[in-house]
Amino acid sequence: MLHRAGWDADMTLTPLRNTTYRCTARERESIGPWKHSIHQLIVIGLIAHNCIEATVRYAAELGYEVAVVRDAVADYTEEMMHAALDINMPNYASAIVTTGEIVASIASLKPEGLTDSPAA
After folding, report:
1. Which of 2, 40, 75, 97 is least surrounded, with the fewest CB atoms within 10 Å of its CB?
2. What's 22's DSSP letter?
3. Residue ranges of the domains in the chain?
4. Is residue 41 within 8 Å of 65, Cβ to Cβ?
């Protein structure tokens, strides 16, 4: 609690979080893989050592299988990218892959009988 002179009420400060999952424990129950049929996440984006790493870590803690697409994330320096992708994230991510690998993986999931061309 923060007390400030001249204020009648206490003020609680909540730290900002750099993750996509800003929620309470009760809200967390509604976004985990046990609640929905989504069990795998593909993560891409900016600031690998900060936002991407925090998102991957939290998603893994919620029980998701998380794949990070190595060539679809960025950071300020090569050193920061190396620290995030090669040292830290392997502790949380299920896989760290390339765009080609993730596209091939998704393509292999196409249901039988489904064609690439629209129905005539």
Report:
1. 2
2. -
3. 25-107
4. yes
- Residues near 29 by beta carbon (within 8 Å), at least 6 away in sequence: 35
Across the chain, mean pLDDT equals 76
Where do the DSSP E strands lie in 47-112?
65-74, 95-97
pLDDT in tens, 25-69: 555 566 565 566 778 889 999 999 998 999 899 888 888 899 999
Amino acid identity, position 89: M
What is the CATH class of 25-107?
Answer: alpha beta
Sign of the C-alpha dihedral, residues 67, 60, 63, 27? negative
Please give the backbone phi and psi of residue 52, each rounded to the nearest 5 degrees, phi first. Answer: -65, -45
Is the Cβ–Cβ distance between 99 and 69 less than 8 Å? yes
